[in-house]
Amino acid sequence: MPIVSLGICQMPVVEEKKENLKTAAAYVAAAAVRGCRIVILPEMFNCPYQTELFAAYAESYPDGETLQLLGELAARHRVVLVGGSIPERDSAGRIYNTCFVFGREGNLLAKYRKIHLFDVAIAQGAQFQESAVITAGSAGTVLTVDGLCLGVAICYDIRFPELARAMVLQGADILIYPAAFSPVTGPVHWELLLRARAVDNQVFTVGVSPGATPGAVYQPYGHSLAVDPWGDLLGQCGSQEELLCVAVDLTRLQKVRQELPLLQHRRPDLY
Ligand SMILES: NC(=O)CCC(=O)C(=O)O
């Protein structure tokens, strides 16, 4: 399958969980109507990105209402659904920032728990202590579906080139980052990081943020985008809510890697 259409759902996230689920369902339906076979939601799409709210919105697999809905939506629309992330509670009561991926039969294909937690204190205003509530995951996630290899990580993970490289060495064709970048770091780093990971690994990268939500305490930067293995933008949203559909042509990846065989030129024996 050399060309596949991705649905990038830059949806707003409000305080009411049910409203977020309705919005997500509408976005997935619209993406399917537009022919997208892989549909991606943003980080913490069922819950505002505020640590003090995570426990109240947390759900466990398989019974959580958000997780039930994601499976149903994937099956109803026959799409691979990369379910952004939600606060996930495990049987010991720990909470993770987790991405669940569902297949076209509504089956769980994979799950990824955010490894690098957003603990920062940036003078211009981005103060966040994700680890106050969230437990870090302990494994990367790469999955193959329809002959396409997807690497999944979450937001702040994009800053760690080692994780991206590890996923690519495991065969990833597309690196998918559900995210909610801050309005302070977003304008300077977001596009740069996605393009850097794309160019240094010759891979498609996709970042999916919530859109602007009037009155929200945390206003994510938005600007969801997809980048090809040459570093060219395939499409980008603004700050407002939007469904962006982009076509990913895998022959592009093969061509770039053939012409500029970067991955073959690595010298892991020397560094
Ligand atoms: N949700 C996050 O991990 C935010 C990451 C972020 O804004 C950054 O600058 O990194």
UniProtKB/TrEMBL annotation:
<dbReference type="GO" id="GO:0006528">
    <property type="term" value="P:asparagine metabolic process"/>
</dbReference>
<protein>
    <submittedName>
        <fullName>Predicted amidohydrolase</fullName>
    </submittedName>
</protein>
<dbReference type="Pfam" id="PF00795">
    <property type="entry name" value="CN_hydrolase"/>
</dbReference>
<dbReference type="GO" id="GO:0050152">
    <property type="term" value="F:omega-amidase activity"/>
</dbReference>
<keyword id="KW-0378">Hydrolase</keyword>
<dbReference type="GO" id="GO:0006107">
    <property type="term" value="P:oxaloacetate metabolic process"/>
</dbReference>
<dbReference type="InterPro" id="IPR045254">
    <property type="entry name" value="Nit1/2_C-N_Hydrolase"/>
</dbReference>
<dbReference type="InterPro" id="IPR003010">
    <property type="entry name" value="C-N_Hydrolase"/>
</dbReference>
<comment type="similarity">
    <text>Belongs to the carbon-nitrogen hydrolase superfamily. NIT1/NIT2 family.</text>
</comment>
<dbReference type="GO" id="GO:0006541">
    <property type="term" value="P:glutamine metabolic process"/>
</dbReference>
<feature type="domain" description="CN hydrolase">
    <location>
        <begin position="4"/>
        <end position="250"/>
    </location>
</feature>
<dbReference type="InterPro" id="IPR001110">
    <property type="entry name" value="UPF0012_CS"/>
</dbReference>
<dbReference type="InterPro" id="IPR036526">
    <property type="entry name" value="C-N_Hydrolase_sf"/>
</dbReference>
